[in-house]
Design a protein that fits this description.
The chain is an alpha+beta fold. The protein is built from 16 helices and 37 strands. It has five domains: about 170 residues, Sandwich (Immunoglobulin-like); about 190 residues, Alpha-D-Glucose-1,6-Bisphosphate, Chain A, domain 4; about 200 residues, Sandwich (Immunoglobulin-like), CATH 2.60.40; about 140 residues, Roll (PH-domain like); about 110 residues, no CATH class. It is found in: Membrane.
């Protein structure tokens, strides 16, 4: 016997008023014989609407009389506190219905809920509300044409009672079995054509799940006994798994369900087509499933054949049986039965619901574990490859209340997480997983526009089109016109406008052509001469930094350059710079540029972002805004997709933002960290061991809220000198120095970057240092302000000073601290030296280029025996576009080197041609401005006399 129950809604429910009553959920429990189930909980209403359907298999021993089944429906409120129904729920009312076997389903009816009757209590009439139910009981040999526990028509029109009109009931496609006489085994051979047997009014479902947007109630009957019987679902002869998938594609498909509420066990993108990934996971006798069972220690693994569970709306289902090996959570081997049902299979998207029953575990008869596998198309790549996204979510379905519910959920979660870690590892060995970086950057690679498309977009406007039409019109007029007689001041070859109209038209045409030529020239300068670092791949081994510049929002226009800006962005990190492309005449640019930094030996800490407006090759480039991104203050998930606000007068007034995607990682993983520690060992003179994610490392990351990739190098116990000395611990990593102290519950913690340190020196022992040496750390002006509470003093220049003393081993601690800071400062000095050398080389290249252009024009006659006196004055100036840490040093060294080299180059040697070539001539070449890098430019004034 099969019992169909549809729980539609309830009305007029009553409970005691309380503070939590408005937020409590109301749900209904259904009990039929030995079977139990429940609906989802609806909050915030006394008239809940569930619209959920259930199907139960009733045995002969569960019948009250022949052809009659007792059905009990109870309504509970969560958190009621009277213990009704277990789990702290309050019983609001219940109803008992005796259902007789019917050939056709009856329309839904309202049933009055009855209160609980306590022994010895006086009978009082109490209105507990009503519940709308539709029930039907069918035997195995009845006609199934009318088997619908809740026809839509019965809800839309009431025969007698003024019932409210309910929304249409949506049935999910998760059948347990159907009675189809035409089913055949599809594991071998060909599938028989049975689509002609499907008719619109011939649908029969034996298992229903209440469908909600959040998939709150994936409710199934609590037993699977009898499902595999030959009478319920006969195996089909013939057919392959691929043919079955093709048949499902031809049928109506439900929407892809949402993830289950228990959480996500696995969400990964793989380089494989969705249908191939589906075959790998669910094809009969899949080698992957065999390897997974062997890897997890499962015994007696057996796959039942796939079977059709519906006739006209086919759903595939199969059972998998195995013996799960003992684990830390469950000390003995347990038998498990897993039912796999296809919810959706349209060739591109697949959804499979797995229902796992483990009755031999403690409280195994009280719950079932639900697993939802979703396969969806991933991003496409410019190379033409396709990818698939696999998402596995879970939930647990309790058939009855138990006080061990929390423990069961926690244990199931831990066991599933461990199981699917090995699942992900094995799957990555069969197919290539796609990292989150590649997954997010793939759409940008496809959307990046070429120079030709940008050129057409820049010139496809009204100005250019009207100019071209006007020029063609004038050209056609010239071809069609006859030559006129020479008149006025004209002569042969020199034609003048004859009327003011011709003069005005000619002037307008010249101005329009000049404007178009300026636009083309500006585009060439911006896209060709300026260039871009997009598409340049990173080289080397070490720490890699990839920045994806997606778009900008509300970028300002400079007052000196009216109109829309021509923005481009410069990124700087660890002395290296990358430049984006120039977007012309827009305040909301779309870049889609991917910029990769070459591998760095030092882990990156800060990314400097500068936004400029391009106005030409030698014109002043206006800074529209700037920002600084500290990698230690953001998680990898936040860096992968973030909007940053720009600083600066113009940017703040416009509330400008940039959309970035940043990825930081190392090519060698732990090996890169070990190489860094080996380098530090040589400088410190002491061996440093690599700390894998142990307790100390995790504590260090938790205290200072650091990302998982930040590794602890060493920690020392010391005293922080303030008005009141504070004893704590100093934590050292490759990028930060942190201090933490807990003085009777009063916690003090701060950290700052090594790049923020300007000076570090040792103070000799004295009375103020309690007879021990001390280490003074001075930060740069305006840096490390969040660590201000731990500073000893703040000098007039705005620099914070920290004093650490009372180390257990001062020599060891000071060497380690100064070595870590020295590695960062030396990297900055090397970068400054490279910049200085570039300035000198570019200066002399420009000077020689100008001399080679001018000197051939000035050469006259033979050189005399005696050269007259000649002077060459050169003025050199460094103009800084933004402040840097080594600004003063670079300026001083550049000017000194250029003055010395210029004097050596232009000093008279007694013979040569410079004096003769400049004889009696005074030349003023003006000035030339050369952009050295994104931080400063070089201005050179010449006067040759």
């Amino acid at each position: 016997m099969r019992l169909f129950v549809h729980v539609a809604e309830a009305r007029g429910l009553a409970w005691r008023p309380s503070r939590a009553a408005s937020s409590s959920g109301v749900y209904a429990k259904i009990k039929a014989g030995k079977h139990k189930s429940r609906t989802r909980a609806i909050t915030g209403t006394r008239d809940p609407v569930w619209n959920e359907e259930f199907a139960f298999w009733m045995g002969e021993d569960e019948e009250e009389e022949e052809g009659t089944v007792e059905l009990k429906v109870s309504v509970f409120r969560e958190g009621g506190g009277d213990g009704g129904g277990g789990g702290g729920a309050e019983l609001l009312g219940r109803v008992r219905v005796y259902v007789e076997e019917e050939a056709e389903a009856k329309p839904p009816a309202w049933f009055s809920l009855q209160p609980r009757r306590h022994r010895g209590a006086k009978s009082k009439t109490k209105d507990c509300g009503e519940i709308l139910l539709a029930v039907s009981l069918h035997g195995r040999n009845c006609n199934h044409n009318g088997i619908r526990s809740c026809p839509h028509s019965s809800f839309c029109s009431g025969a007698g009672d003024p019932q409210p009109k309910l929304p249409p009931v949506v049935l999910t496609n998760i059948p347990l079995s159907t009675e189809s006489d035409n089913t055949t085994n599809i594991e071998h051979g060909q599938i028989e054509a049975h689509s002609s047997a499907a008719t619109e009014g011939d649908k029969s479902r034996t298992s229903f799940l209440g469908s909600s947007q959040n998939y709150d109630s994936l409710e199934l009957s609590d037993t699977i006994s009898g499902i595999e019987s030959a009478e319920d679902a006969k195996s089909l002869d013939g057919g392959t798994f691929e043919d079955a998938m093709e048949i499902m594609q031809t049928r109506d498909q439900i929407d892809i369900p949402e993830d289950l509420q228990g959480g996500i066990l696995l969400q990964q993108t793989y380089m494989i087509e969705p249908k191939h990934l589906n075959s790998l996971l669910y094809k009969p006798n899949s080698q992957f499933r065999r390897d997974l069972a062997r890897r997890q220690g499962n015994l007696d693994y057996e796959e039942k054949p796939w079977k059709w569970r519906c006739q006209d709306d086919p759903c595939l289902s199969r059972f998998v049986c195995y013996t799960k090996a003992a684990t830390k959570l469950v000390k003995k081997a347990v038998e498990a039965t897993e039912e796999q049902v296809y919810l959706k299979a349209d060739g591109k998207k697949f959804a499979v619901l797995n229902r796992v029953c483990t009755p031999s575990v403690p409280y195994g008869n009280c719950f079932q574990v639900l697993l939802l596998y979703k396969i969806t198309p991933g991003p496409d790549f410019s190379s033409g490859e396709t990818s698939s996204c696999l998402t596995i979510s879970w939930d647990i379905n309790f058939h009855q209340s138990t006080v061990m519910k929390g423990l069961i959920e926690a244990t199931a979660r831990r066991g599933l997480e461990e199981s699917y870690e090995s699942f992900a590892e094995l799957l990555s060995q069969h197919i290539k997983p796609l990292s989150s970086k590649e997954h997010l950057l793939a759409p940008l690679q496809l959307d990046h526009r070429s120079n030709w498309k940008l050129f057409m977009q820049h010139l496809c406007n009204l100005t250019v089109c009207s100019t071209i039409l006007m020029a063609l019109y004038v050209f056609c007029h010239i071809l069609l016109s006859e030559p006129q007689k020479i008149q006025g001041l004209e002569f042969d070859g020199f034609d003048l406008p004859d009327t003011f109209g011709e003069l005005i038209v000619a002037g307008i045409l010249v101005l329009r052509v000049q404007h178009v030529a300026t636009m083309i020239s500006h585009f060439i300068q911006a896209r060709v001469q300026r260039g871009s670092d997009h598409g340049i791949e990173a080289h080397g081994d070490g720490w890699l930094l990839t920045v994806a510049l997606v778009e900008g929002s509300r970028l300002p226009s400079a007052a000196a350059a009216p109109g829309f800006p021509d923005p481009y962005v410069v990124f700087s990190c660890n002395g290296r710079s990358r430049t984006s492309s120039v977007q012309l005449q827009t305040s909301d640019p779309q870049w889609n540029d991917i910029l990769e930094f070459d591998a760095m030996q030092e882990p990156p800490s800060v990314l400097d972002v500068q936004v400029f407006s391009f106005d030409g090759t030698f014109d002043r480039e206006l800074c529209l805004g700037h920002a600084e991104i500290n990698f230690l203050r953001h998680t990898p998930e936040e860096l992968a997709d973030m909007w940053i606000s720009l600083e600066g007068r113009l940017a703040r007034s416009s509330r400008s933002k940039l959309h970035l995607r940043i990825f930081v990682g190392s090519t060698g993983g732990d090996e890169t960290i070990r190489e860094y520690l080996q380098k530090m060992e040589k400088e410190v003179g002491k061996k440093m061991s690599f700390r894998s994610p142990d307790k100390n490392n995790s504590t260090f990351q938790k205290i200072f809220a650091l990302p998982p990739e930040e590794f602890l190098i060493h920690e020392f116990s010391c005293c922080l000198k303030r008005k009141l000395p504070l004893h704590g611990r100093v934590y050292l990593s490759a990028r930060v120095l942190g201090f933490y102290a807990n003085f009777f519950g009063y916690k003090t913690k701060f950290c700052f970057l090594w790049e923020d340190v300007e000076d570090m020196h040792v103070v000799s022992p004295s009375l103020t240092t309690v007879g021990s040496p001390a280490l003074i750390v001075t930060l740069r002006s305006g840096r490390g302000l969040d660590a201000r509470r731990g500073a000893k003093t703040l000098d007039e220049e705005g620099r914070l000073k920290f004093q650490f003393q009372s180390f257990a081993s001062f020599n060891k601690a000071s060497r380690t601290i100064m070595a870590l800071w020295g590695s960062k400062s030396r990297a900055g000095e090397q970068h400054a030296k490279v910049e200085e050398d570039q300035v000198v080389q570019l200066f002399f290249f420009l000077l020689l280029r100008l001399l080679l252009l001018v000197l051939p024009l000035l050469q006259v006659g033979e050189p005399p025996a005696v050269f007259p006196a000649s002077n060459c004055d050169v003025w050199i100036g460094v103009e800084w576009l933004r402040s840097t840490k080594l600004q003063k040093r670079i300026t001083r060294n550049v000017c000194e080197k250029l003055a010395k080299r210029s004097k050596e180059m232009l000093e008279p040697t007694g013979e040569g041609s410079i004096g003769f070539l400049l004889r009696g001539i005074v030349l003023v070449l003006g000035f030339s401005k050369l952009r050295v890098n994104e931080a400063f430019s070089l201005r050179i004034d010449y006067r040759l006399a």
